[in-house]
Amino acid sequence: MTNWNSALWLGVLGIMPLASASPLGLSEPSAPPTASHPASLPHTPFTGTPTTTGALTASSIGTGIVESASVAPAETTYVSDGELQNAEPAPYVPAGGVGTEGQIPVYNAKSDFDYESLALALYQEWIELDLFQDGLRRFSAKDFEDAGLNAADRDLIAFMAEQEVGHATLISNMLGADAPKQCQYDYPYTNVQEYLDFCQKLTRFGESGVYGFLGHLDSREAATLLTQSITTEARQQMIFRQFEGLFPMPVWFEVGVPQSWAWTLLAPYISSCPADQTRLVWQNFPALWIENQPTLANAGKHNNGTAFNNTLSPGTNVAKSSSKENPNSKNGASGASVTPEGYSPLSFPGRRVDLRWEEPGKAVGPNNSYVTSTQAGEAKFVAWASQLNLTYTPLLGINGSSGYTIQPDMETYEGDPAVNGTMFIAITDSDIFLTPFNLSMINTHVVAGPALYQAD
Ligand SMILES: *[C@@H]1O[C@H](CO)[C@@H](O)[C@H](O)[C@H]1NC(C)=O
Ligand SMILES: *[C@@H]1O[C@H](CO)[C@@H](O)[C@H](O)[C@H]1NC(C)=O
Ligand SMILES: *[C@@H]1O[C@H](CO)[C@@H](O)[C@H](O)[C@H]1NC(C)=O
Ligand SMILES: *[C@@H]1O[C@H](CO)[C@@H](O)[C@H](O)[C@H]1NC(C)=O
Ligand SMILES: *[C@@H]1O[C@H](CO)[C@@H](O)[C@H](O)[C@H]1NC(C)=O
Ligand SMILES: *[C@@H]1O[C@H](CO)[C@@H](O)[C@H](O)[C@H]1NC(C)=O
Ligand SMILES: *[C@@H]1O[C@H](CO)[C@@H](O)[C@H](O)[C@H]1NC(C)=O
Fold it and tell me: 107 lies in a domain?
């Protein structure tokens, strides 16, 4: 046996060989430890009284963010003609960029915005870790098989939980000692099909919630590492779509949404957090129900304008499913097929969408210690955030806190129906024009929502 082989073998056994024993320097891997978290927690609603109430606030709060009257001149001075405009700092190195001049990267939060955004992402990673394990604990192998998932598919879900340990560790390390800890959760699903739909929708707002702030972080270093974890989450979202029998990716672009949208969607499933948990600054908007959520079971032209009350909860609006029924077969797909054959779109432009929303002032989230609020006026529009686009349709038939709207017909680019995939809608008081990089300015106009709309 050569030194190399014995070093490898000892490494597999978990025995540390002498470093000098290996001419290739191969020794026991010694990676940093993962963040500690409870092995298993109960999944029950919170019944106590919170010791504190409301979002985290600073000692001074301004009156609002005002839109600039014009574009800063420096934004448009670069001559975009394909020639180098400045001297190169080194061979093969174009001038410009941030953090490219030999600075030592520091992977931490550099502002309140960074800390609060990363802390939100950490709350998300912790719930995913618990969620992926919960389905595997709660449902039997037979339950999964009935939904079209085999043992290897279940192993993949278990591996996704391991990925979340890594993501939670990464963000905890960047935040430091006061990073939010794992909480206790309470989920609405009652069978495998609903579980897969919940996972698919939860990972959608996890992913989109990060895209909404990535480009705005002060810490480019944190943004770089977060990108490297959110791309894994994007793969998880697509796999859950496939498990459920949905077309894997009907869109050309993945939408980004503001932090308060992600927090509004996430918080209701957190029942309690440990004492001294670091709190968040983000807003919880009043919840929005989609009364007739498009589903695999009702795909196509049915379910147009009939209130079905077909979701388990507002916000995520996971479609109710009977455990006996396997809606995958409706599209000729097995749960785990890569691309279902004969797939027909779940919704279509011109479809009537029935909506109902809650009034503000409801206690939600960890220990019921956050309170829903809105700064908006009268409910007038439905905002559709999908791909690169934000568009509005009029809110019709308003009766108290319910109404309906008609699914819009628009393309992101020619040939790409914009309202598609798992996307976001919200009730607003205005049809303010916004683009992906200033989308968070919608928040003061949100009456209720967001809700996840299963366009396809
Ligand atoms: C939330 O509930 C947990 C468990 O009862 C408790 O330890 C924690 O202190 C509570 N936190 C708040 C903010 O009420
Ligand atoms: C919605 O359906 C649930 C049962 O799934 C029922 O308990 C509830 O009363 C219904 N709500 C409305 C507004 O119809
Ligand atoms: C989503 O996009 C696919 C591919 O372009 C298209 O076939 C489908 O009809 C779209 N779905 C909706 C709801 O428009
Ligand atoms: C769906 O409902 C809307 C509004 O009631 C109507 O205009 C449209 O024609 C309907 N479409 C189909 C395919 O039934
Ligand atoms: C408005 O909603 C109430 C129930 O909340 C219902 O009784 C009433 O019929 C509705 N009005 C109209 C015009 O639909
Ligand atoms: C969708 O977004 C793209 C990219 O910003 C833009 O060019 C297009 O005009 C938008 N389409 C609609 C219907 O808003
Ligand atoms: C958002 O950005 C677009 C440019 O992409 C600009 O036209 C629009 O006025 C901005 N909206 C606000 C409210 O600042």
Answer: no
